[in-house]
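Handout, section B. The chain below has 94 residues.
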Amino acid sequence: MDLNKVVAHLDPMCGNLVFLHMEVNPGAYIRNAAVKLERYHVRGDGVYRVYLEFADRQGILHMDDVTEARVEEGRVLFVGYDERERLARTSYRA
């Protein structure tokens, strides 16, 4: 992941309305949720933790085990792959 490239794309998004698309493996997703990005943090080395905070108490999005970021004009895609290079399953506790 090129952290400088990610930061260069996320910085101008802060304070602006962005559209969030999120998929959780297996079987859950959010599409085209309009939120105002207030701040973000990306931390790690090889495997990253991504934290997006939204304005006006719209909430936060916290992602662990992110291994890749794809950056395109106006878009940042975060992905997590497992040790076999498959999309990582999301773990949770009931």
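Note. The longest strand covers residues 28-45. Compare this with the example in section A.
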